[in-house]
Please model this.
Amino acid sequence: MNSIYDPLGLAVPVVLEGKLLLQQLVLLGKKNTREKPLGWDDPLPETLLSQWQCWRNLLPHLENVSVPRCYHPAGFGNNVRREIHAFSDTSKDAIGASIYLQLTSDRGEISTTLLFGQSKVAPAQTTSIPHLELCAAVLASQAVDKIVKEIDMEINEITFYTDSRVVLGYIRNESQRFYVYVANHVQTIRKISKPKQWKYIDTAADLSKRCLNVRSLMGSNWLTGPNFLKNLSRTPAAEGRRNLNK
Model:
C-alpha cells in the first residue's frame, strides 16, 4: 500500500479497496474464533487471496489513466467564475471527501476537474453512521482549507455537500448544545466554513468512499465530478435547495 504515491488522491477509489483488504488482514491477525490469529508469514485465506491478487494485478493499469496537468482546458476561453465544490460521504466501511474545481468561461462553458480526493477506512469498532458522516464533513472541510491556501487563483464561491440531514442539522444548529465529540467536530467545520455553504445532495453523487477497479475508474465521473456540476441550468445553489426540499 505504501508504494502507491498519490498525494492528490486521484486514485482514491482504487486504493480504497486495498486499504479495506489490509484492514481485514490486520483483524485476522488479532483474533480468529476458529483457530489461532493469522501470523505475518501465514498464507492468506483463499477468499482474501483471490481478492488481493485481482486488486494487485489491476494496479499497473493505472499507468493508462491520463489526467491533464492544467485545470484550464485548451480552447476553453477566459475564466469568469471559479468555484470549489466539496463532497463528503460515508459508508459502514469508509469515509471520503472529493473536491472539484468548477470553471465557467465567458462563452458560458463549464469545466469541472478533481482537485483532491481522500478516503479513510472506518474504525473496526461499531460506530454510528451519523458520526462517520460528521467525520467525513470534517475531512472535506480540512481538505478545502488546505486547497484554498495553496491554489493560485481567486475562488468566487465554495459549496459543501453531504447526504446526511443529521450532519446538516449539527452544522446549522444555533441553540442546542451537543456532547463533546459532536461539538468539537462541528466547531472544526464552522471554523472553516459557514452553515449556509452546506447543501444536501443525494448519496449517489460521491465516489470517494466506494471501491472501483482501474477500468471502472476510467469510465466513471470521479475525475470530472457529478454531472449536475456541468449543467448551467442546474446551478449548485438551486440543486441544493431542490434536494433539501425532497
Notes: The chain has one domain: 7-246. The beta strands are 79-90, 94-105, 110-121, 157-162, 198-200. Helices lie at 12-30, 46-58, 129-150, 165-172, 180-192, 214-218, 236-244.
